[in-house]
Design goal:
The chain is α/β, with parallel strands linked by helices and 412 residues long. It has 12 helices and 18 strands. Among the domains are: 172 residues, Acetylglutamate kinase-like (Carbamate kinase, 3-Layer(aba) Sandwich); 75 residues, ACT domain (Alpha-Beta Plaits), CATH 3.30.70.260. The strands form 4 sheets. An 8-stranded mixed sheet has the order 3-6-2-1-9-11-12-10, sandwiched between helices. It has a 6-stranded antiparallel sheet with strand order 14-15-13-16-18-17, with helices on both faces. Strands 4-5 form a two-stranded antiparallel sheet. α6 packs antiparallel against α7 and α11 packs across α12. It is globular and about 75 Å long. Bound molecules: aspartic acid (ASP) and magnesium ion (MG). Magnesium ion binds next to loops.
Length: 412
């Protein structure tokens, strides 16, 4: 049997009781003859608490020290889990990110894994031990402790699975898989049994929140088979892998939404590629991420430009635009709050005209006005009014048959 990487999130190891439960689950996997490498997050809300504590001392915390502080959260959970496994008679060892050989770049608080020097992990596996690695952290070539960004333990798990050529990477969390829509909005939402990396990537990025998008990207790159399941129940989760067939089947696997959307509208903007370049170069220099872009006319001297940014970036965007109003020669900019993004996700969407038509049919019956649209091979997203969001999600879910569809067979 090969190596299985199991990752347990904060709520899964949120108390002593939970840690003992997780230890049992790991033992079951080990007893089936697998080598097990475990990755854990910090217990419960402890990362949030560490951040709050630091903020009581100072509002602007140096990133290096923040990483030092936050890396301690995972050290608590790895050692407690190792203690639990040992108390049950199993040989286990906890390793920090650096002991596990997780080498990152030096972008504190958002570091990327560059390489895993897995020799120490392999030595302990060869000794028959269960290896428990701290998620979310690594070390630079200069010996500095880094963290991978919030939710980064998923990425640690996938990177380890890739490096160790594991048979499977199991992500255990507090939900039992990836759903076709948010069950709080669509009670008939169904668990997706099987999906591709690209679909998961869209769902993860668009706000399904179950998996760190970087983890999915890494899994796709190294072909790591992934499952997302609950550590609180035994039901089967969602399986994520590359498509099996030679040609894609088409279908929608889910409806997602994101409320962190603000529309920036610029009126009477000179129509030309050079000014557009100046505008977006300005935003780029301030690292403002733009999602949708819309231009109202193509052949008049003046046009209206709108684009979307996150709530966090809105103030900075407006300031920058006001400061550069004269240089960019436009006369008015404002921000429209109360917008939301709703998307349908599935393989090969854009090559199926009936899908787009059906999307508009759903919006028409739900009486939803579309403000902006963009699409890719595997998703179609629309900006609508946040007030109509729930209704839009429900109508789309029903229109595409997701209330009743056996989602496992979509791609087979
Ligand atoms: N403990 C870190 C966080 O809360 C990393 C993780 O949970 O994946 O963001
Ligand atoms: Mg998480």
């Amino acid at each position: 049997m090969g190596i299985i990487v199991q990752k347990f999130g904060g709520t899964s190891v949120g108390s002593v009781e939970r840690i003992l439960k997780v230890a049992e689950q790991i033992i079951t996997t080990k007893q089936k003859g697998n080598d097990v490498v475990v990755v854990v997050s910090a217990m419960g809300k402890s990362t949030d608490l560490l951040i709050e504590t630091a903020k009581q001392i100072c509002a602007e915390i140096p990133n290096r020290e923040m990483d030092m502080l936050l890396s301690t959260g995972e050290l608590v959970s790895i050692s407690l889990l190792a203690i639990a496994l040992r108390s049950k008679g199993f040989s286990a060892i906890s390793l920090t990110g650096w002991q596990a050989g997780i080498l990152t770049d030096s972008f504190h608080s958002q570091a990327r894994i560059e390489h895993v020097n897995n020799s120490k992990i392999l030595t302990h596996i060869d000794m028959g031990q269960i290896v428990i690695v701290a998620g979310f952290q690594g070390i630079t070539t200069f010996g500095e402790v880094t963290t991978l960004g919030r939710g980064g333990s998923d990425t640690t798990a996938v990177a380890l699975a890739a490096s160790l050529n594991a048979d499977l990477c199991e992500i255990y969390t507090d939900v039992d898989g990836v759903y076709s829509a948010d069950p709080r909005i669509v009670p008939s939402a169904r668990k997706i049994k099987r999906m591709t990396y690209d679909e998961m990537l869209e769902l993860a990025t668009l706000g399904a929140g179950v998996l760190h998008p970087r983890a999915v990207r890494c899994a796709k790159k190294y072909n790591v088979r992934l499952t997302v399941a609950s550590s609180f129940s035994n039901v089967q989760g969602t399986f994520i892998e590359e498509e099996a067939g030679m040609e894609k089947d088409y279908g929608i696997c889910g409806v997602t939404y994101n409320e962190d959307v603000v529309m920036i509208k610029i009126e009477n903007f000179p129509n030309g590629a050079d000014v557009l370049y100046s505008l977006f170069a300005l935003l780029m220099q301030s690292k403002i991420t733009v999602d949708f872009i819309n231009q109202s006319s193509n052949d008049l001297p003046l046009t209206n430009i709108s684009f979307t940014v996150s709530k966090e970036d809105t103030k900075r965007t407006l300031e920058l635009l006001e400061e550069n109003k004269e240089r960019l020669e436009f006369n008015k900019v404002n921000a429209e709050f109360g917008a939301a993004k709703v998307s349908i996700v599935g393989t090969g969407l854009i090559s199926e005209p009936e899908i787009i038509a059906n999307m508009f049919k759903a919006f028409a019956s739900a009486n939803v006005l579309i403000k902006m649209i963009n699409s890719s091979e595997i998703k179609i997203s629309c900006i609508i009014s946040a007030e109509r969001l729930e209704t839009a999600v429900q109508y789309l879910h029903t229109t595409f048959g997701l209330d009743t569809k056996e989602i496992a067979v979509v791609h087979r």
